[in-house]
Structures are given as structure tokens and as C-alpha cells.
TrEMBL record:
Cited InterPro entries: KH_dom-like_a/b, OsmC/Ohr_fam, OsmC/Ohrsf
This protein's name: Osmotically inducible protein C
Species of the source: Oceanospirillum linum
Pfam families for this protein: OsmC
NCBIfam families membership: PRK10738.1
Top-level lineage group: Bacteria
Lineage per the UniProt record: Bacteria, Pseudomonadati, Pseudomonadota, Gammaproteobacteria, Oceanospirillales
Amino acid sequence: MKAVVKWTDGVQFLAESGSGHAIVVDGPPEKGGRNTGPRPMELLLMGLGSCSSFDVIGILQKSRQDISDCYVEIAAERADTVPSLFTKIHLHFVIKGRSVKEAHVKRAVELSAEKYCSASIMLAAGGVEISHDYEIIEL
């Protein structure tokens, strides 16, 4: 896996993945940015949420759960000192569907956190306290 990050101006960068997809990364105006894209640490949270959601959806589909929507709300805390590392991250999954069994959702979230989500496991190994919960909305 590879990526290229090119400085464009101020604290703005163009990040391109090995698969050819690009995103603008920028800082806030008070740090010289123009607010044209997410911050680097926001990208880490988005990557974590995407990685874990990918697992949860796949596991639920394999267990033949009739899901029509899934999203994850992520809240994080950072240290007050430099480097301001993540100290705690909480992922709240919202699963929408018909007759979705709670046991299947619980298992999918646990498997993602403990076995499949590389981003989550890597952050936890680095000392970040990661927690998860979920809710099911019946349609």
C-alpha cells in the first residue's frame, strides 16, 4: 500500500492513495490554512470509522440480516500536550433494518473491534482507549 502527499500551499496538501483517489487536507485559518479539507487527525477518525463500518456491514450481510443503513458516530478526546494524541475514541453504530437481531449486531461490532479492523486494533495497541456501542432502528 502506498500514498503520496504533496504540499500545495500554506498548510494545505493533496493526498493521493495508491489506488488513485485524492483528497485535499488542510488546516484551520488560525494555523495558516484555508479550511478547504479535513484535518489530518480527522482523516484518522474517518479511516477508523470506515474500516470498522466495512467489517460490521459485511458481517451482518453474511449473517443474512436485512439492513438498509449503517452509520457510525465517532467521538474522540485528545491529550492537551504536544503531541496531542488520541486518548479515547468512542464509536456509536446505528443500524437500520427489518428484524435485525441484536445478537448479530453485537457480534459484528465485537469482531470488528477485536479481530478485523486494522485501524482500531492498531490505535488500541498504541494506547488509545477505544469503546463501541450500537443501536438498532427497526424499519
